[in-house]
């Protein structure tokens, strides 16, 4: 029984690991912090997995556990030290005709998103993942109306940050 539970967990984790990487990218700014957060989220998912009832999709549950873990650790880290900027670690393809416009726009967006509070970051993340408001509300534990209102306010806040 335990072996089967472990095998199912590993399969689902491998299938949906990009969710964790995206959460890590949102809440960290260097390679080591990314790996540490990935490991911590994985541990928390494993601890919580036996209680997963399947009331929601595994990916929705995974978003919720991942975001809650990241937010908790992010808040703790704010009381300690700052880490190296992620841009120094980012990989760039070398090519004569390489256009980094999109990459630069993403950097600007991430820089703006990093100025938001923890809950706002989570909402933006789920929104950018093309989750509908119903799924966002389930993941965040808020009403669908509240998710829409918060998202509209966040969009305005980002506009102000990006276009001062």
UniProtKB/TrEMBL annotation:
| NCBIfam families documented for this protein | sigma70-ECF
Query: What is the top-level taxon of the source organism?
Result: Bacteria
Instruction: Give the Pfam families listed for this entry.
Output: Sigma70_r2, Sigma70_r4_2
Question: This chain belongs to which protein, by name?
Answer: RNA polymerase sigma factor
RNA polymerase sigma-70 region domain location: 12-80
An example of a Gene Ontology BP annotation on this entry? DNA-templated transcription initiation
Molecular function GO labels: DNA binding; sigma factor activity
